[in-house]
Write a structure and sequence with these properties.
Layout lengths: L4 H12 L10 E13 L12 E15 L4 E16 L11 E15 L6 E10 L2 E2 L7 E2 L3 E15 L4 E19 L6 E21 L4 E15 L18 E13 L2 E12 L3 E19 L3
Antiparallel strand pairs: 1-2, 1-14, 2-3, 3-4, 4-5, 5-8, 6-7, 8-9, 9-10, 10-11, 11-12, 12-13, 13-14
Length: about 300
Amino acid sequence: MRVKPYYLLLIVLGCLIPGAGNAEPWSKSIDASLTLTQNTYSDNWKGGESGSANWMFLSNSFLEKQLSSLIHNKNVLKLQFGQTYVQQKETKNWDKPEKSSDLIDFETVFRFSLNSWAEPFASGRLESQFLDSGEANNPVYFNPMTLTQSAGAIKVLVKEETREWTLRFGGGFREHIDREVLDPDTMKRDTDSSYDGGFEMVNDLRMPIFGDAIDVRSKLIVFQAVFFSKADDFKGTPAEDYWKSPDINWENVFTASITKYLMVNLYTQFLYDKQINKAGRFKQTLGLGLKWNYESIP
């Protein structure tokens, strides 16, 4: 039986954490917003317009603590979910909602404080979505999933109250899990999984701009695989070496507070994975709505 790397990581961290005796409180920050837009037309409206309704939930959470003189822990959770309703032009009836945004992204990083130029780290990351609606008659919750475990060296370039900039480099292992995959030959459903490993670079930046008017969080991840569990499946095809190209994930979150309970949130993401698409993919989410903030309370 193969022992997966993230199991080993959890075992090691489980042995270290119980010994942490730092009485300092956790540093916490939770930003959540809900946006709603809607327009509708009566069945005798002329002009060809059709109504629509959109709602979207965004949340960015941060949890950090120096667990002991040796171990520092940082956790980041990003959540998104939204739906769009469209009104038919002719009948003015409303179609079933379609998903417009969906993201679950959790990362935990353990840094070992050795007071050196660069310090060792170990991290784990889970990427998924709330609802996989690829098949209308077979929705799957929390699918697909990508689990990433990495370890290496981290350099804290800037560490201030409102600014933080870190650079990580190390080895990484990723496992991709897709549940309820339909086999067209047997018409049976099963879980499809694959894994790859290689080198990972993460550039993580948090800073305000225009004074303190806008908070910016930017993360650039570059993953270079050196092995892929399904490489043999693509031999002799044009996609034989696609897995050898680096994968890029560049996320940016811009948050501006208009009032205490009103905010503007802009999320952008650029993805490049040659096995999925030879061109880069871009996503933008803009929200204006109610916000809730919980920050730095012991």
